[in-house]
Structures
1.
Amino acid sequence: MYTQVITVKNKGLYPRNLNYFTDSLMDTNIIFPLSWEHVYLQPDEIFEFKVVIAPNENSLYNAIRHIFIESEHPI
């Protein structure tokens, strides 16, 4: 099992909509803090979330896995 904490900071002037996804849904779990109730990251706000990768019996242990973080300006 592999665990990584990822920190994101909005250095822009406007709130950003954050989208998270992975290419390995069977192995990867993205854990958000309990206090995270919205999808917009405010200016100068810092957000930390944990990614846990636990290969199962049907997956390859040494396969490359990707976590994608997309930040977009609200319309």
2.
Amino acid sequence: MSLEAEEFNDMTTDEAQTTNGTVLPAEAMAAQVSRLLATPGLPPRAVATLRRADSAFGLLDALLRSGAPIPGCWRVDSDAENYKARYLTDVYDRLSEALREDGGAPHAFAALRSACQEWKALDAALRAGSPLPEPWQR
């Protein structure tokens, strides 16, 4: 098993239980994204951290797009004003773009800092009762 696969396996098995290969809960993946982006770490580990954060966000994204339950800490208001949904969709888009950046450690470190800022904005807005970004709307 490669180092990346071992890190990803550690990430998923530490954060959520799976049953016969079923999907991981969205709440565990949101918590994992929060932990990975809370502090970007040192530049030499930036590439690996960025990959792990992208993988965790990718799982969260797939779960929420497929209708999985929304994390309990998010007080989503589907009746909120339309401009809030547009704002959160823009934040979601910037976060996705930052997590998918390629390059060496300096570039990955800058992308992690950007992703951290966007995740904090998205998570805080959803905890405060904003609507879901467009890709996750039900």
